[in-house]
Every structure is written in C-alpha cells, then in structure tokens.
Amino acid sequence: YVLTESGTWTRFGNRGALTVLVDDALANPYGILLVNPERHPHVRADAARQLIDWLTGPAGQKVIENFSIDGQQPFRAIASAAAACD
Predict the structure, then answer these.
(1) pLDDT of residue 73
(2) What is the Cα–Cα distance from 80 to 68, expressed in whole angstroms?
C-alpha cells in the first residue's frame, strides 16, 4: 500500500500495478494567509491582498477547479470540495 494525496499521485509516473483504493478520503488543503504588515513592514500587503482576493474569489476558484494534469484534476476549489463533503 502507498498513502498519498491526489496531487502527488497525478504526477507519479511509476505506478506499476498500483491502483487507487480510496479517492478523496485524504484531503490535502492549501491555505493562504496575509502576513501582518504591522509586524513585518517589508511585505507587499496590497499585492498579497490582491492575490488572496483573486484566489478565493470566483475567478481564482474557477482556475483551480479547471486545472488538470494529463486529464486528471489534482486539486478542488474550496466551493466544490465543501460540496463533496456534504
């Protein structure tokens, strides 16, 4: 048995006779945080906020949801991931 998440599995080329036994059971969520610009004044907080707003907004979520590698979708947008858990 091999334990991995979907992003790594998608890129893993030497699968041999391995098959997926359980799909979507092991979530590998990504997150994004804005570093506190008051504690770290060198950060580009405005640019970071724009990135966060884009990634968490409809346009960024659509890009994440439509991303694929060799026809496989290694990531899920938060909205579709939440719906899959219902």
Answers:
(1) 82
(2) 15
Tokens of 10: 């998608």
What are the tens digits of pLDDT across the range 4-60? 777 777 778 788 888 888 776 666 778 899 999 999 999 999 999 999 999 999 999
Which single residue is written with the structure tokens 């969520």? 29
User: Which residue type does 33 have?
Assistant: L
Do the beta carbons of residue 84 and residue 76 sit within 8 Å?
yes
Q: What is the largest CA-CA distance in the chain?
A: 53
Q: How far is CA 25 from CA 28, 54, 55, 62, in A?
A: 10, 27, 24, 23
Q: Taking the complete model, does pTM exceed 0.70, yes or no?
A: no
The pair phi, psi for residue 4, each rounded to 5°, is -155, 165
Residue identified by tokens 């990531």 is 75
CA distance 58 to 51: 13
